[in-house]
Amino acid sequence: MSFFDDDDDEEDDSLINNGINQRGSSSRTTRENSSLFIDRLRSTVSPHSEEIQIQIQIERERERSKASESIFDESNLSLSNFNENNFENQIQIQNYEKDEEDDDYDEEEEDLNDIKKLNKFWIKERGIPELSNWQGDLIDEIFDKLEQQQKMVNTLNSDPQTSEEEHFKLMLVQTEMERVKYLIRSYVRTRLHKIEKFSHYITVTPNTHHLLSGAELSHAKRYTDLLHTHFEHSVLDSLPEWLRKMDDTYGDGLSMISKPNRNTPVLIYCKRDCGEITLEGGERAALAKGTTHLVKYKLVDRWINLGWAEVL
Amino acid sequence: MALPKHLQNGLTPDELTFLAEEETIDIVPLFSMTRVRLLSGIYGPFQPPSAAKVPLWLALSLKRKRKCRIVPPDWLGIDRLQNLLKEERENAEAFCSLPRRFIEISKVLLDVAPDDLIQPSLLRSLLKDLREVRQAKIRIGLQSEGVMRGSYLQVTNLTPLELTELKPFLVKAMSIMQSLEPRRDEDEEEDVV
Of A73, A181, A238, B173, which residue has the fewest beta carbons closer than 10 angstroms? Predict the structure, then answer.
């Protein structure tokens, strides 16, 4: 299974999430089947890798050439996949054009590669006041690919036979890897920032839990605990009992638990006609296709989550 | 802090440039190399007289090593920009539709590859004019009655970079207006009582 070969499950998915899940699981099976690094390199070139018995010690030469092929894509297999990919994209573009009247689902999202998708999720995460879904499968997928690239780079870099041209390509590969790593870091940090800011709210609101990954959720809980223990030890314990609460609500409805302010304005670009929204003053605003608006998050969150409106 | 304060208001111009560098652009390579497979796709082959489509960051990286010539996007030409500028000046009510990341892309191209552009200094001044005309319109727009009153603003055809400049101010203004609104209502009620 070639690692950029996601076109076969792309066609039948109606939603991106679906597609991500499928691809995530397929990469996981690959991981289980081939624990050895060589197997994995091989598996990027040939689909029957498991059948070949390998002995690491005598395979140095072939390992090198495999690694080289799989990064540099000189094999026919990858070439034909690439062409199919192009063809697929054309089909999808045509579908998208047809899709103008048929508003059921978004085909346009599907021809984006993983990196473009991550870009989108990163922009969205930065733009909106509350947490959005954790893109675990996408991140896993990208991590897998990064790991694979890293191993190939290591193999080829330590090999004296690597040609000048290959070194140059390796440099490009590494540049891209750094860009992707930066993107992942920034994405995770943005989420971490929101999680720490709203840790108490997240802990006491079970219906936000599905938005977080396991690690994020346990971090939110531990962070809240630590913070509360610290407050108690440093100040609260020496206060009278009735002042010690940390989840009180004031008379005017203001709670001590800070939660995302859904009134924050967000910038959205409407990718399709989102109808009309009613503003506070009773005025109405039309969210026509191709227009950009600065509007309260709570009024448009459905369109954002459906992918009809894009956060800028 | 997981996210430094200056990043909390939304994307910064640097980050927008980073995003713009993911857009594809045509290059004419000055060296030959077979295909290269990256995470985002397969690029090449690079064979001198024929053009190749690559992400902007790759083009810039090759350009810095003097290994390619960048083919500027079709909107980055004197005629096109003069037309756009004229259109932008004549249309006082709305903004012209421009490529989403035109400021970022034109900036990096002018910085890194001025020798691949025709009359870069003229381009630079045209782009500057275009940007100033738009900025002036934004300023006039903000002064007009009622813009700051509500919590909604239509900003069609402004590019993300221009919106980034505006957003912190608008968000702040809107939140101040919001915090003033209910209290005013209460005052009125008290007055009535």
Answer: A238
Residues 86-145 of B with CB under 8 A from A: none
| Listed residue (B161, B8, B159) closest to B88, CA to CA | B159
pLDDT at A70: 55
Residue B91 pLDDT class (50, 70, 90 cuts): confident
Residues on chain B touching A113 (C-beta within 8 angstroms): 39-41
Identity of the residue numbered A64: R
The answer to whether residue A237 is domain-embedded is yes
Strand runs (DSSP E) across B33-131, as ranges? Answer: 36-38, 41-43, 52-55, 68-71
CA dihedral (B184, B185, B188, B193) in degrees, to 10, reads -140
Give the separation between CA B87 and CA B81, rounded to whole angstroms. 10
pLDDT tens track for A127-142: 888 888 898 899 999 9
Interface of A with B in 202-261 (CB under 8 A): none
Residues A63 and A191 in one domain: yes
Count of all residues that appear for chain B in the document: 193
Question: What is the pLDDT confidence band of residue A54, given thresholds at 50, 70 and 90?
Answer: very low
B interface test, pick of A267, A280, A310 with most B CB neighbours within 10 Å? A267
pLDDT of residue B146: 63
Residue A86 tokens, joined = 């192009």
Average pLDDT on A168-179 reads 91
Burial pattern B97-108, b for ≥16 Cβ within 10 A else e, equals: ebbbbbbbbbbb
**Tokens, residue B37:** 């497979």
Number of domains in chain B: 2
Which among B3, B155, B160 has CB closest to A293?
A: B155
Is A304 inside a domain boundary? yes
Work out the burial of residue B188: count CB atoms within 10 Å of its CB; fewer than 13 is exposed, 13-18 middle, 19 or more buried. exposed
Share of chain B above pLDDT 90, in %: 26
The HSE-up count of residue B131 (CA atoms within 13 Å, CB side) is 17
Q: How many residues does chain A have?
A: 312
Q: Do B94 and B165 belong together in one domain?
A: yes
User: How high is the pLDDT of residue B185?
Assistant: 47
Decide if B37 and A279 are in contact by the 8 Å CB cutoff: no
pLDDT given at position A78:
40
**Which structural domain, as residue segments, surrounds residue B179?**
73-184
User: How would you classify the pairing of strands A276-278 and A284-286?
Assistant: antiparallel
Q: Which of B57, B56, B49 is nearest to B29 (CA)?
A: B49
Confirm if A38 and A54 have CB atoms less than 8 A apart. yes
Q: Is B179 on the interface with A (CB under 8 A)?
A: no
Of A130-144, A155-169, B117-131, the poorest mean pLDDT is in: A155-169
- Provide the domain limits for residue A213: 199-243
Mean pLDDT of chain A: 71
Nearest CA in chain B to A126: B10
Q: Are B17 and B104 spatial neighbours (Cβ–Cβ below 8 Å)?
A: yes
